[in-house]
Amino acid sequence: MSDKLVPVLACGAWRPSKSTGAFQAENPALGQPLPENYPVSSREETLEMLQAGSEAAEALRNVGGDTIARFLETYADGIDRRSAEFVEVAHTETALPKSPRLKDNELPRTTDQLRQAARAAREGSWRRPVRDDARKIWSVFAPLGGPILVLGPNNFPFAFNSAAGGDFAAAIAAHNPVIAKANTAHPGTTRLFAEVAHDAVRATGLHPATVQMLYRMPADVGLEMVSHPLTGATAFTGSKSAGMKLKEAADRAGRPVYLEMSSVNPVLLLEGALRERGPAIADEFFASCTLGAGQFCTCPSFIMLPDSDAGRKFVQAAREKFDAGAPGILLGRGGRDALVDAVSVLQKNGATLMCGGQALPGPAYRFANTLLRVSAGDFLKQPQKLQTEAFGPVALLVISGDTAQTISVLKHLEGNLTGTVYSDTAGSDDAEYAAVEPALRQRVGRLINDRMPTGVAVSPAMNHGGPFPATGHPGFTAVGLPASIQRFAVLHCYDNVRPARLPAALKG
Description:
The chain is 39% helix and 19% strand. With 508 residues, it is α/β, with parallel strands linked by helices. It has two domains: 52-261 and 471-506, Aldehyde Dehydrogenase, Chain A, domain 1 (3-Layer(aba) Sandwich); 266-449, Aldehyde Dehydrogenase, Chain A, domain 2, CATH 3.40.309.10. The protein is globular, with a radius of gyration of 24 Å.
């Protein structure tokens, strides 16, 4: 390990950090630390970054949408030129497959998001101008006026990266600067993004502090950042426990905070669908639940099905697949340990272990593919504990006696990102679908039919959000432009203001 600390991107330049400590990332495939030494930024450094971000926000307010768009496009082009380097570093830090996951899927999705954000910035529909000429009242959305603090997750080193992902793209499209806090699972990847972003900032003439980046700060300093008067808003993707601490601090100070935290993504398997194509659904379930070692925010980990012959055949088929499948590599030691705790909570509250349930030996961080089951009646005795999220290749099968019991379970569910219903193609499940859909619909952001929930298309119609605790606010999405931009905008109203004094978006 080198004693030299990696620099931070602060106040418009790469510079040595005013650090209070250091840390190393790990290679999860080897269970070994990587050589780079990353700084833990001090309170002094974060306050300097907030001040610089505030100055950048003032400058960006009057920058044209075309200039913002050119920055985002220049940035995307720069990422493409260094794609091989990005893939290599992210693979080392996360153990995610180079191909197709990183090279062919996630990196192109990331640059596509940036280019979609560029189009949204250029055409400006996110501003949603409204004109009431008769009353001389006009309104339009505008930048928040402060830097956006983005805290990205560990499971998508590209597409949700704090310095390049969806939150970053949406914040910049709304003419806000970004302070990116790297996820400690992939700091090197985030550093590469910040390098390319900084080059694009200079190439397009934006304020030098439009993009800043740090790696870690003490917990109390992070809470101060989200609640600071200079912070425009915070966007966080991660655990519920961390998200709730951020939310409490931001709410107390009246600062906007957008959170993606926890989701078990319920899947309802109706009787006719299981009779018609039960084995095929079991294949889809296993593939989706174990994709990326189960570390997707849309992983189907709560499966409801009937107590019937078709249901029992599905349970057996799913168990065989989970038993036989090779567990993937987890993103880190902490994820493995959290899975041990989550499975223990499920078992202590009435769930029966069918297979798996333990961390696996070896240098790589792995957890056995795990299935648990519980009756709907027993679930209703401990509904909160039995919705404990196990972020990995783990699922709970809930066996329901009838439609009324299924609806009772659904009414006890917390908010989720997604909810799925499988029904038969001949229509025999239509009556039950009509009965259960209203209860499910109210508890999920995205309702899906006849396919598993993993996969979030970057579409203007997408909602990657949902009721609490899936997110901190049910009215916003983290994916889908221009809707995702609205999180980082403020509504400005003009009453009897002279036409020549109105902003450009309200003229004409």
